[in-house]
Amino acid sequence: PICPGMECAGIVRALGDGVRDRQVGDKVMVLARSGLWQEVVNVPASQTFPMPEGMSFEEAAALLVNYITAYMILFDFGNLRPNQSVLIHMAAGGVGTAAIQLCKTVENVTIFGTASASKHESLKESGVAHPIDYRTMDYAEEVRKISPKGVDIVLDPLGGSDTSKAFNLLKPMGKLITYGVANLLTGQKKNLMAMAKTWWNQFSITALQLLNQNKAVCGYHLGYMDEEVELLRSVVAKLVNLYSQGKIKPKIDSVWPFDQVAEAMKQMQEKKNVGKVILVPEAPKEESKKAEN
């Protein structure tokens, strides 16, 4: 059996030999490749990060993957600066909401965000200047109507033909950062035809072709950075500082007990969530009381 879960939050119960920078009782966030959907986990101390004052366990469980990803894409790869423009796909999801908040820490950044129409009001409230309904509109055309030259940065979790569209939307000196292939997932069951189509349409470019375009293409996968301890620790320190200043705050869509994990996954699969879907070992006490009544 496989146990998923790249991030969690909890209290330190015990320490291994030689661990000096953690104490039993510490509240920590944890980052790993997998295996964290459990009540008790055993991880290297280097994969734990102290929770900042005032942060809930739900917020802590929602911080690391989304915000590390969004931060490194926007600032390490994207070099986001004042007066630039950003296109964020799946803007109402976990990485999307993190990216919006981080964009707001830079002066006068124009945010385009794709999401279903039902989520547009929420996106506007969070700082998206131009929400676009990808189901009924061609987002590339909509961006061009407002910004004929395109945008400075595109966050691409989609893959396939959308990566090509993203590259063509970049201004000169623009940056495309691809960090997923969500187009491979078309429903609850595998669709081999859709997977083949996405693979066939995957964006490809040579170094010589890039030379004439004056654009950059970057790839990001947090799961393959688990050995970059110091780098990740420095990013988390910056994020904790931003949280403590009130500039970022993980957005929780809903909280589900472990025994409702299928319903929680369905919430995301049907794209109903705005923000992070959180799993907890047991149902929140308020919900338990309602069930009893």
Automatic annotation (TrEMBL):
Domain of life from the UniProt record: Eukaryota
Family to which the UniProt record says this protein belongs: Belongs to the zinc-containing alcohol dehydrogenase family. Quinone oxidoreductase subfamily.
Keywords: Acetylation, Oxidoreductase
Annotated Gene Ontology cellular component terms: mitochondrial outer membrane
Gene name linked to the record: Vat1
Example of a GO MF term: oxidoreductase activity
Name listed for the protein in its UniProt record: VAT1 protein
GO biological process: negative regulation of mitochondrial fusion
Domain named Enoyl reductase (ER): residues: 1-279
Gene3D superfamilies (UniProt xref): Medium-chain alcohol dehydrogenases, catalytic domain, NAD(P)-binding Rossmann-like Domain
InterPro entries for the chain: ADH-like_N (IPR013154), ER (IPR020843), GroES-like_sf (IPR011032), NAD(P)-bd_dom_sf (IPR036291), Quin_OxRdtase/zeta-crystal_CS (IPR002364), SV-ATPase_mito-regulator (IPR052100)
